[in-house]
């Protein structure tokens, strides 16, 4: 038997010795969790407004997820895509019944789902008599993953650096600037890919006009409109898909993160002709759509859609922005550029270049976990089941940290 570490410090010390150093980690080893709260090995309690980077949509240890895991342990975990499994079918059915899509293709991570969208777009063009079309237009400041193709699709030099030569076939337009997208569309374009709300890029919602304009442009040119909802799909905005909030339907859309409540699963959802492109032998993965991950996704979606989670997300999200505005305007009016978000993805854009000191103080002084993205945007992506009292604790922690910093 592996002997367990006894303290938080022991986990961290061994982690630094044995884990590859590709992540900067908070010095905290999480041992357990309940709802929006997590506990370290020494028994300290933290309010979790990172939520596994938007993964723990139902919070930690949701009873329906526990029940689902118990049932899976006694039935079947994996069986390959040579066979059908009911959880995969039920999950796809739920997604189709609550969206504009006709088919669902499963994957294991957000990057992999986006890789699937990119392949789908290239084949779609070939299937429709345009073998010359292979370029996907994405947005500056976007984030689509870290495989070679999705890192290249990502419109950030920091994600490309060190990995040249990058795969060909990506051009970058300005987010929320339709003219800049139009200027890049040419005879080689097969698709436009965007997040409806840029997450890693600093919680930046698209405008409705931008997404509508992209839809019209794609229809006019006969190319695909693809959304990346890895972060903002699966209920994060208070709708199953963020694009439902905007009323703009893409041809394909990726989802991942909160879909499996912590077990890796992702999906490419497609409609119309785009739902017919990836034929046998063109795409797939050993683990994708397995019974364990899909049973968790099915349960997650069922709880989200039928147990008031989306309404809570919408209501508490509005409360968050109201409280944040009140406190910032009263106590730190010169420190903040903008407070923005949808549902329970919210950001506070600071005037200072780096938001990390606020994150560190929230952790050290208030046992509140938040993160900083795109340099100076405090990001709040808690479980969708949080309540207003928990929002108050977080806003108070940010207020206290900014006061201490003299901001
Ligand atoms: C919008 C978006 N797309 C893709 C990804 C990549 O997902 P994964 O880390 O599961 O590969 C992320 C991850 O943060 C994301 O936010």
Short description:
Helices cover 39% and strands 18% of the residues.
Structure, explained:
The chain has 407 residues and is of the alpha/beta class. The protein folds into two domains: 153 residues, Aspartate Aminotransferase, domain 1 (Alpha-Beta Complex); 231 residues, Aspartate Aminotransferase, domain 2, CATH 3.40.640. The chain is built from 14 helices and 17 strands. The strands form four sheets. Strands 4-12-11-10-7-5-6 form a seven-stranded mixed beta sheet, with helices on both faces. It has a four-stranded mixed beta sheet with strand order 1-2-3-15. The longest helix is centred in the last third of the chain and has 23 residues. It is globular. The N and C termini lie far apart (51 Å). The site of pyridoxal-5'-phosphate has 15 residues, from helix 5.
Topology summary:
Blueprint: H1 8-18, E1 30-34, E2 37-40, E3 45-48, H2 51-54, H3 63-73, H4 86-97, E4 103-107, H5 110-127, E5 135-139, H6 148-153, H7 157-160, E6 170-173, H8 178-184, E7 189-194, E8 197-198, E9 204-205, H9 208-221, E10 224-229, H10 242-246, E11 252-255, E12 266-270, H11 291-306, H12 309-331, E13 336-342, E14 345-350, H13 356-366, E15 368-369, E16 371-373, E17 377-380, H14 388-405
Parallel strand pairs: 3-15, 5-6, 5-7, 7-10, 10-11
Antiparallel strand pairs: 1-2, 2-3, 4-12, 8-9, 11-12, 13-14, 14-17, 16-17
Pyridoxal-5'-phosphate is lined by residues 53, 109-111, 114, 143-145, 195, 199-200, 228, 230-231, 256.
């Amino acid at each position: 038997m592996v002997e367990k570490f006894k303290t938080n410090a022991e986990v961290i010390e061994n982690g630094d010795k044995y884990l590859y150093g590709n992540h900067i980690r908070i010095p905290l080893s999480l041992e357990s969790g309940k709802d929006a709260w997590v506990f370290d090995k020494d028994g300290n309690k933290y309010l979790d407004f990172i939520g596994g980077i938007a993964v723990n949509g139902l919070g930690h240890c949701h009873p329906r997820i526990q029940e689902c895991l118990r049932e899976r342990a006694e039935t079947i975990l994996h069986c390959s895509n040579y066979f059908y499994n009911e959880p995969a079918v039920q999950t796809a059915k739920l997604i189709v019944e609550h969206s504009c899509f006709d088919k669902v293709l499963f994957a294991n991570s957000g990057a992999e789902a986006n890789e699937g969208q990119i392949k789908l777009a290239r084949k779609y063009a070939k299937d429709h008599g345009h073998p010359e079309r292979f370029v996907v237009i994405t947005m500056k400041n976007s984030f689509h993953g870290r495989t070679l193709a999705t890192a290249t699709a990502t419109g950030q030099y920091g994600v490309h650096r060190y990995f040249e030569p990058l795969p060909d076939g990506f051009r970058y337009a300005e987010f929320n600037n339709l003219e800049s997208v139009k200027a890049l569309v040419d005879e080689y374009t097969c698709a436009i890919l965007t997040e409806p709300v840029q997450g890693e890029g600093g919680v930046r919602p698209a405008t409705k006009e931008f997404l509508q304009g992209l839809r019209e442009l794609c229809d006019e040119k006969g190319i695909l409109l693809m959304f990346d909802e890895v972060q903002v799909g699966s209920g994060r905005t208070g709708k199953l898909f963020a694009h439902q909030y905007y009323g703009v339907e893409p041809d394909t859309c990726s989802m991942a993160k909160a879909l499996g409540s912590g077990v890796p699963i992702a999906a490419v959802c497609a409609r119309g002709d785009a739902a017919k492109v990836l034929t046998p032998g063109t795409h797939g993965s050993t683990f994708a759509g397995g019974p364990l991950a899909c049973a968790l996704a099915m349960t997650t979606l069922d709880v989200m859609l039928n147990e008031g989670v989306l309404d809570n997300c919408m209501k508490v999200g509005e409360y968050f922005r109201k409280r944040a505005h009140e406190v910032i305007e009263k106590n730190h009016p010169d420190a903040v550029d903008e407070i923005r978000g949808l549902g329970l993805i919210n950001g506070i854009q600071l005037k200072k270049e780096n938001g990390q000191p606020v994150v560190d103080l929230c952790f050290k002084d208030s046992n509140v976990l938040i993160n900083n993205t795109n340099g100076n945007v405090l990001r709040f992506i808690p479980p969708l089941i949080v309540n207003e009292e928990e929002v108050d604790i977080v806003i108070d922690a940010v207020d206290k940290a900014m006061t201490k910093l003299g901001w």
